Automatic annotation (TrEMBL):
InterPro entries: KsgA/Erm, rRNA_Ade_diMease-like_C, rRNA_Ade_Mease_Trfase_CS, rRNA_Ade_methylase_Trfase_N, rRNA_adenine_dimethylase, SAM-dependent_MTases_sf. The gene is rsmA. Belongs to the class I-like SAM-binding methyltransferase superfamily. rRNA adenine N(6)-methyltransferase family. RsmA subfamily. This is Probable ribosomal RNA small subunit methyltransferase A. It comes from Haloplanus vescus. HAMAP family: 16SrRNA_methyltr_A. The lineage of its organism: Archaea, Methanobacteriati, Methanobacteriota, Stenosarchaea group, Halobacteria.
Length: 283
């Protein structure tokens, strides 16, 4: 949906230049800005869209055109004040809420139905793992390399802890590469837009925290066999008896390396680990 405000006009009225040290790279390519909200899944509920890092509001403007209500969280006090001034009519009409604060610290609205954001790259991982457990569809701009790691499948060089952890919550797709020239000031890296569509994973885990900790542990030794990785990382996974887990697990998984285990393989191993590797634990 096309917005009504030009990104250059917003930058001029705000009287700011993006400060890269504060993760400020404003989107100025109108074609990209106009496309981004449209990457939400077709059946997504657009009644309350959450935007992290509003900047001068170029994306906020497009989100207001494409949804009923928007909440935007912005850490920079001057930008938050500018957003309140620029979008005073939308705020008065109860269509926009501007929250001045750090997206890692403020409470996220509990009734957001989707999130569309051009994220501050310095904290994109932490913000993503606040958003994904909300179980809402998202369209997020990331550093390209991060986006590719999020969406990667087992057996590829990009596949790792980030892929398994993100795909635990949602289907993850890279939907558009974005060059540095789309931003002001241009970042030093390429970017990409990612869509996450919540769905149940094709495996079950009893203890989500333990599953994610186990995945993290095994990937710290991605060049070792899974057998050795389980044995060497008990201090991270929290296993009391890693040898008992190795004794119980199938050789076909133990002889692989972390990068070749699919998410459901990790789930199988994590269940065995919870059963056999924790004293007085789930088993
Ligand atoms: C990449 S810019 C995107 C701005 C705007 N949405 C756009 O697309 O032009 C990221 C924005 O996030 C803000 N920001 C940085 N760290 C933040 C944090 N921890 N919480 C909330 N906002 C943050 C920056 O001030 C900046 O305005």
């Amino acid at each position: 949906m096309t917005g009504t405000r030009s990104p250059e006009g917003l930058l001029e009225r705000a009287g700011v230049r993006g400060n890269p040290d504060r993760d400020q790279h404003f989107l100025i390519d109108e074609r990209v800005l106009d496309r981004v909200p449209g990457y939400l899944p077709e059946d997504a509920d657009r009644s309350h869209v959450l935007e992290i890092g509003g900047g001068t509001g170029a994306l906020t403007d497009r989100l207001l055109a494409a949804s009923e209500r928007v909440t935007v969280i912005e850490r920079d006090p001057d930008l938050a004040a500018f957003l309140r001034e620029e979008f005073a009519a939308e705020i008065d009409a109860d269509r926009l809420t501007v929250v001045h604060g750090d997206a890692l610290e403020v409470d996220l609205p509990d009734d957001a139905t989707a999130s569309v954001s051009n994220l501050p790259y310095g904290v994109s991982s932490e913000i993503t793992f606040r958003l994904l457990p909300l179980g809402i569809p998202t369209v997020l701009m990331f550093q390209k390399e991060f986006a590719e790691r999020m969406a990667a499948e087992s057996g590829t060089s990009e596949y790792g802890r980030l892929s398994v952890s993100a795909q635990h919550y949602a289907a993850v797709e890279v939907v558009e590469p974005v060059p540095p020239t789309a931003f002001s000031p241009p970042p030093a890296v390429d970017s990409a837009v990612v869509r996450t569509t919540p769905r149940d994973p094709d495996y079950e885990v009893d203890d989500e925290d333990f599953f994610l900790r186990f995945v993290k542990a095994v990937f710290t030794q991605r060049r070792k066999t899974v057998r050795n990785a389980i044995r060497n990382t008990a201090h991270i996974s929290g296993l009391d008896t890693p040898d008992a887990v190795v004794d119980a697990a199938p050789e076909a998984l133990l002889s692989k390396r972390a990068g070749d285990l699919a998410p459901d393989d990790f789930a199988e191993l994590a269940s065995l680990a919870a059963e056999h590797g924790v004293e007085g634990g789930n088993g």
